[in-house]
């Protein structure tokens, strides 16, 4: 949660429209430098001067129904402070550099209708027990 002075300072820097957008989606006001956009339209920001430590990087998702799995692996490493340079500046993290890499980022589908469901194709080795009650 922001202090009143920090909130007013950020409103002055980013404007009313972005203030309302940030309060709707992240619940806080942040003003920073746009680092880059990924190929899905997510915007990545950084503000080293005015933010608390380890809260200086954030993402503005393109989709309204967002999930952290919508972040590509290189951007996830930058957001988690595993690397100092964003994927736009680091050749190792750039997407499409490796032959085994998927051409399109596939999000994690756990807890959705498209999640993988296991099934067995092997005949059961045991049979269920059917109790038989003797008549009295």
Q: Could you characterize what this model shows?
A:
With 136 residues, the chain is an alpha+beta fold. The protein has 3 helices and 3 strands. A 3-stranded antiparallel sheet has the order 1-2-3, with helices on one face. Strand 1 and strand 2 (43-46) form a beta hairpin.
Present the secondary structure layout.
Blueprint: H1 4-14, H2 16-25, E1 33-37, E2 43-46, E3 57-60, H3 73-79
Antiparallel strand pairs: 1-2, 2-3
Helix content: 10-25%
> How many DSSP-defined strands?
3
One letter per element, helices H and strands E, the order comes to HHEEEH
Radius of gyration: 24 Å
Distance between the termini: 71 Å
Number of helices: 3
Shape: elongated
Strand content: 5-15%
Mean pLDDT across the residues is 84
Summarize the main sheet. 3 strands, antiparallel
Main β-sheet, spatial strand arrangement: 1-2-3
Structural class: alpha+beta
pLDDT < 50 runs, ≥5 residues: none
Name the features.
136 residues, alpha+beta, 3-stranded antiparallel sheet
Brief summary:
The chain is an alpha+beta fold and 136 residues long.
């Amino acid at each position: 949660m922001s202090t009143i002075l920090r909130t007013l300072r950020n409103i002055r820097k980013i404007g009313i429209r972005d203030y309302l957008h940030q309060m709707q989606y992240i619940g806080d006001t942040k003003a920073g430098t746009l680092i880059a956009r990924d190929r899905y339209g997510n915007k990545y920001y950084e503000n080293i001067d005015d933010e608390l430590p380890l809260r200086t990087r954030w993402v503005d998702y393109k989709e309204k129904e967002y999930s952290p799995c919508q972040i590509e692996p290189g951007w996830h490493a930058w957001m988690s402070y595993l690397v100092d340079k964003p994927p736009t500046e680091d050749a190792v993290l750039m997407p499409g550099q490796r032959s085994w890499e998927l051409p399109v980022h596939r999000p994690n589908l756990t807890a959705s209708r498209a999640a993988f469901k296991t099934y067995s194709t092997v005949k059961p080795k045991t049979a269920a027990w059917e109790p038989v009650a003797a008549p009295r």
